[in-house]
């Protein structure tokens, strides 16, 4: 739907102006999936034994 927050804001404002009488937007929740090629080194989250 939108590639960035500015595009999303523009879309919501246009939607509000076109359908102001029929549509009431009160809350907007954005789910962000961040894909990265960065990988943590092996063993970073391994538990250590306490002696």
Question: Secondary-structure blueprint of this entry?
Answer:
Elements: H1 5-18
What does this 3D model show about the protein?
The protein is an all-alpha fold and 51 residues long. Helices cover 27% and strands 0% of the residues. The protein has one helix and no strands. It has one helix at 5-18. It is elongated and about 70 Å long. The chain starts with a helix and ends in a 33-residue tail after the last helix.
Write a brief caption for the model:
This protein is mainly α. The chain has one helix at 5-18.
Fraction of residues in β-strands: under 5%
Assign the structural class, choosing from mainly alpha, mainly beta, alpha/beta, alpha+beta, or little secondary structure: mainly alpha
> Tell me about the biggest sheet?
none
The 3D shape can be described as elongated
* Number of distinct helices: 1
Question: N-to-C terminal Cα separation, in Å?
Answer: 54 Å
Listing every helix as H and every strand as E from the N terminus to the C terminus, the arrangement reads H
The helical percent reads 25-40%
Q: Mean pLDDT, as a whole number?
A: 76
The counted number of beta strands is 0
What Rg is obtained from the alpha carbons, in whole angstroms? 21 Å
Which residue ranges are poorly predicted, with pLDDT under 50 across at least 5 consecutive positions? none
């Amino acid at each position: 739907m939108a590639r960035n927050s500015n595009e999303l804001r523009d879309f919501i404002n246009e939607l509000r102006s076109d359908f102001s009488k029929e549509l009431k937007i009160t809350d907007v929740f954005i789910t962000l999936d961040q894909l990265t090629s960065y990988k943590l080194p092996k063993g970073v989250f391994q538990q250590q034994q306490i002696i």
